[in-house]
Fold:
Amino acid sequence: MQNNERKKIFYLTLHLEGVNFKHFRKLLDYFNLKEIDNFPFIDYKEKIKRILNLSLDEDKAKFEIEKACKLGVTILTLEDLDYPSLLKKICQPPLVLYIKGEIPQGEKNISIVGARKATNYGLMTAEWLGEKLAEIGITIISGMARGIDSSAHIGALKVKGKTLAVLGCGIDIIYPPENKKLKREIEENGAVISEFPLKTPPHAYNFPLRNRIISGMSWGTIVVEAGEHSGSLITANSALEEGREVFAVPGNIKNSQSKGTHKLIKEGAKLIENIEDILEELPFKINKPEEKKEKIIDLSKEKKLLYELIDYEGKNSEELILSSNLSSQTVLSSLLLLETKGLIKRQAGNFYLRIN
Structure:
């Protein structure tokens, strides 16, 4: 698109608050029209008149483009040919996308979302899903939030797969701040995306808007963990409204973070237990992962017992000593060996988790 057309769209996005997509094309059509009084949407008339009469508006749009270029950020408008085709099909596509990195071709995209305050099981499941799907060429989309989102990105990056992060703030803002390194890695192995102007803070009301982009760029959305009123359910509902697939990972019935996912399953979301459950619902062909034979691990009776006692939620060493009826020395030495073999993972407070 030519720069003057891009500037037109910036006038609208930067200066007209609450611009509605259904009015967008008419706004473009009428933008340079002298007979502005004939414009059909009364609420916008005075605003458009001000834009047409103020040269500063053009400067602001130009300045925004220049700042983005200096940051290595690409700007796409709805009228650009490179605008993601899946996203363009949703009811309210963003008028402008700021992109740092590169969006992979082919749009073989799946989003993984879930709770910020996730359980160990949820974090490990999200990472495993991100890893296994990225390994077979699927791009993982999420929101780079704490918890499930970050784990999904990490899983994809673990196998050098492609992943996209959609932000609820300006693309030049790092949120949450502890994800500075993760953001850089995503930019190098995919892209970070935002519809918000540079320097936009992470306001709470931005995130529901952000969620429609996550689902809108994806053929399907996987919800790993979600509370009863989680924002992840907004993403799932957006996916359903656009006729996209929704998947849910079942969880512990006693955990509040399972209420949202179980609700989705009751309402028709597909319960997933493995990667094949996802692949069979996708509209594109993908090479299924090769079935890997499980390694035969020679464990003593005591070590096998401990391994069976350790779950994905975590058990501390004292609890394992009591439940196994083994000596503390046997338990601690066995845990060290299981950890060395990559079967369990030690966390703070002498907690041990089973890992895939």
Q: What stands out?
A: Residues 301-354 form a domain with the Arc Repressor Mutant, subunit A fold (CATH 1.10.10.10). The longest strand covers residues 96-101. The chain has three domains: 1-70, 109-279, 301-354. The radius of gyration is 24 Å.
